[in-house]
């Protein structure tokens, strides 16, 4: 059963750090069998008062792999870099 990590990047505080993050993260995502399915793009709110900014969604084959990636030692330093570069919200969602 697939799982998804959804990030809503609300503000970028340090573009240089964010670029460093982006240049390194793909190989770690792929190591945990993840693939990007949303990377920015136009959004249209059709219900409610949600104000998405820059959305990123990564698909993993399972909830266990999504959690393993997010909490891994492999991702730890990059996660800290991303968190220092942005204000963002994130959720891990179990798919169907």
Automatic annotation (TrEMBL):
Q: Which Gene3D superfamilies does the entry link to?
A: 3.30.70.100
A Pfam family assignment? DUF1330
**Residue span, DUF1330 domain:** 2-96
What name does the UniProt record give this protein?
DUF1330 domain-containing protein
The species is Agaribacillus aureus
